[in-house]
Amino acid sequence: MTIPRRVVLGLIGAAAFGRPAGAADKIVGGTLGGQAPLWPFYVAARKGFFAGEDLDVEINFAQSGPAVAQQLTGGAFDVALSIGNDNAMHAIDKGAPLAIVRVIGNTAPYALIGKPELKTIADLKGKTISVGQANDITTVFFERMAAANGLQRADYDELVGGVAAARLAALKAGVADAAFVLPPLNFQANAAGYVTLGFSADYVKDLPFTGMVVRKAWATANVPLAKRLITATDKSIAWLADDAHRGEAIEVLVNAARARPEDAAASYDLLRRIKYFEPSRKVSRRKLQNLIDAQRALGNVDASLTVDRLVMPGLTELTD
Q1: 157 and 293 both lie in a single domain
Q2: 3-state class (DSSP) for residue 108
Q3: Are residues 174 and 238 both part of a single domain?
Q4: Total of domains in the chain
């Protein structure tokens, strides 16, 4: 499988510290997407948190979460900096030698966008909503939102839409009355006249959304290196959590991910409001179990899957 795009971030941080790039330890990372969800890693490069840990981090972008997990399993990457925890869980359930070592996105930032005439989620009775794949995690988030607003599963139709951009396209084409999308697509939809009916993070707070995932063979041979990567990530997320850095954080995303300034600003405010980035490296056993239970209910994982199979002693700091 080809890797469509690659950027080397650690070199930026190394240059900022006046340290030769060759002195840093190389990590080959992979991930899905290139904008707001990767904010901590852009910050770690631009503000020198990678360089401060003597890291040269290369980021490769793949077209889907399963593709990242597949390439990580095959050895193309050392680590997936941020992918869906459900993607990692599916791969591990099938025997992939991977482990979740840190939660990155603590809550899902999905936005439910609807036609202009809709006012509330309850207005979706009798309507069609574009979600992801059949029995994927987007259906879990949407159905919990719907239930909280008095809708039963028989009250609406779900349209399998694929990725977020395709789901929004279904809404714009009139095939769907609402769509479940990710930033910045929701802000772009708002600018086009569509309305925001709700955010999943306001309804579902117990399912960790994305995580840092390692290939066990690499991590076993490079435990100190992996720990330094986690430390740099901790520092970067702490920096992002300081509202005094809002302007600079927006500038980082605009420059690193070519985001529109207005989208970067709106994304920063949303992710801060919903507490998207997990501030602690501690991983909740209870929340991982919740995710296993949700995936098991969808028929996506075997009954034998346990939390202990998802993590790596010595790197993952499990709590509760």
Answers
A1: no
A2: coil
A3: no
A4: 2
The span from the CA of 312 to the CA of 303, in Å, is 20
| Residue 210: other Cβ atoms inside 10 A | 32
CA distances from 80 to 16, 50, 136, 219, 262 (A): 25, 16, 20, 12, 28
What residue spans of 47-136 are helical by DSSP H? Answer: 49-52, 65-74, 85-93
Q: Which of 147, 172, 202 lies at the terminal end of a domain, its last residue?
A: 202
Tokens of 264: 């970067």
Residue with tokens 């936005």: 111
Measured distance CA(32)–CA(23) in Å, rounded:
28
Q: Are 235 and 44 in contact (CB under 8 A)?
A: yes
**103 and 244 together in one domain:** yes
The C-alpha angle with vertex 279 and arms to 184 and 133, in degrees rounded to 5, equals 45
Asked if residue 250 and residue 237 are part of one domain, the reply reads: yes
In this predicted structure, the answer to whether residue 4 has a pLDDT above a threshold of 50 is no
Percentage of residues of the chain with pLDDT beyond 90: 84
Domain region containing 23: 5-107+207-319
Q: Any idea how long the chain is?
A: 320
How much helix, strand and coil, in percent to the nearest 5, is found in the chain?
45, 20, 30
CATH number of the domain enclosing 183: 3.40.190.10
pTM of the predicted structure, to 2 decimals: 0.90
Judge residue 286's burial from the number of C-beta atoms within 10 Å of its C-beta, 0-12 exposed, 13-18 middle, 19 or more buried: exposed
Query: Within this chain, do residues 96 and 121 fall inside the same structural domain, yes or no?
Result: no
pLDDT tens per residue across span 256-296: 989 999 999 999 999 999 999 999 999 999 999 999 999 99
Looking at the structure, tell me whether residues 87 and 213 fall in a common domain. Answer: yes
In sequence order, which residues have a C-beta less than 8 Å from that of residue 108 and are 6 or more positions away?
Answer: 137, 141, 200, 201, 204, 207, 209
